[in-house]
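ok trying this again, last paste got cut off
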Amino acid sequence: MNDPHCADRILGCFVGGAIGDAFGAVYEGQSPPIEIDRSLGWMLTDDTQLTLATCEAIADAGQVDPESIALRMAAWFRTGRINGIGAATYKALSELAAGGHWALVGSRGERAAGNGAAMRIAPLAFHLDPELLEHRQRIRDVSRITHHHDEAYCGALAVVVAVRAAWQDACSLGDELLPLVASALPDSLVRDRLRELSVVAGAMTLAEIAARYGASGYVVESVPLALAAAARLESLGFESLMESIVVLGGDADTIASIAGQIAGCRLGLAALPAAMLAQLPYRETVMETAVRFATMRR
């Protein structure tokens, strides 16, 4: 695929996600009402760091290989390049760094139903077609590096479908997004929440959705909320969209990061707000990795 427009959208995905992560990290764990304080510095978290590690592994291997991705994530962990790590992800990374097998270290049980797979899965959308059974298995394998839970996988699959749809103009980022993603998912609570939101979200603000359904790191709350937010890109614009997410508190960095990946993929790098890009920490590193990945993908 030699289309520079497509490459710009790939860059927009990763940079848009990093902006959402760094902006949202300031407000993570807070409870509304929240006011935005523009004097606060932004910070990147594991949402972006593990996404970039995944990009590096795919660029080096030339394909989506779970073992390569796990080894790169472990290398980033060993060298102290990952911060803000949740319990499930920390367990997996620490065991990987100690020599554990990628297919065995992921957390299991109810605590594994977090969004730690969904937050880093976006690079797979540019290499794998979720309509193909073999590709779905690879998405599941990469998810299970940290989270051995069907809901965590379904949340990650939802992000892959949404990013791919934004990249390929498969739907508008409006009323079509939630039903399109829901129709691609297996029976799950994530699918049920997306179906419900596709009916009721149009009559609710994001704050009302978060108040009714939650905005925690539980994947059934965070991924549908992120997609419902991304579906408002065309009415809000990127900057207002990010602001409307971070004031929800809860798992603000991951929700804003996932929404930013989808919205940035639709807009492309060139259309992201210059002021937000200027405030992004380590933007040279983010850009370098994103450019290498996008160049390899073409």
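PB: full thing came through this time. The chain has one domain: 4-42+125-297.
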